[in-house]
Amino acid sequence: MLDNSSKEFMFVLHGLNDSRTNKHIYFAFGLVVYIVTLFVNLTLIITIILEKTLHEPMYLFICNLYVNGICGASAFYPKILADLFSDSHVISYTGCLLQMYIIYCYLFCEFTCLTAMAYDRYVAICKPLEYHNIMTYKTVVNLLVFIWLFSLLQVSVATVLTVQTPLCGNDIDKLYCFNWDVVKLSCTDVTVHNIYGYIVMFFQVFQAVFIIISYICIIRAALKSKTERVKFMQTCLPHLITLMNFTISVLFDVLCARYGKGQELQALRNILGTEFLVVPPLLNPIIYGLKMNQIRFRFMQLYSYRLKAVEQSLN
Questions:
Q1: Which residues pair with 91 in a beta bridge?
Q2: pLDDT per position as a tens digit, 192-210
Q3: Which of 40, 63, 112, 146 has the smallest count of CB within 10 Å of its CB?
Q4: Which pTM does this prediction carry?
Q5: Cα four-point dihedral sign 142, 145, 147, 151
């Protein structure tokens, strides 16, 4: 049995074993993607904060997605970039717990936020006359607080269970620390972890069912009116794309973590294991920031005005 409370305890990450020959290319690509991810998310966050016309429920939820995307990307990129220039891919016990905590918080927060956005779109399209009475500023704030507190609570319980688990190994066949990969190293029975995993899964399935029912109602309402169809294409279609991409990538990664074995599938597991950490934080700003007319217009208007002001001050 290994002493996982010791400061010397280290996990060994084996996900980069097949990537040593091209590590400089991977590092350059990863660094560029990380910088672009931070830049576009931060830029659109600032745009929504500064532009008062964007202080509406839908845009505040989108802004929350951007903040969450930065958290998820920052839990992954710094460590993987450092490992690309290191011969020993290790992480301390505390660092592993911290990385797991942030990544899981990102996962739960993303899905819960997408659920809240589905509710917002349901009210906007199916009950347009009641929208402003239902989706008040107080309601939006309460939903945002619930999104983060509910996510933090789920992750905190899982982390406490993991901390109390004695380990008999330190090898993780992944690019980063993930809760189930650590739990698999346990010396004792992990029934409690499995039960809690099913409880968490129930909440996620419940949210998925809620989203499906919401969109069935939304599609029915959109088919009855040309105006609602336009609103559906502009605001709901990006949401569906984000939701499907995120759900499928997480599902494949969870299945791969639980049932996938063998180093011959390491490249595939790396792709599946990083897709939900790389693509959504980069894709969300493109889908919502560039495809939604109001955000794109306000973005161009705001920064073109500031650019002109800078040019005038220099002249």
A1: 11
A2: 988 998 899 888 888 988 9
A3: 146
A4: 0.86
A5: negative
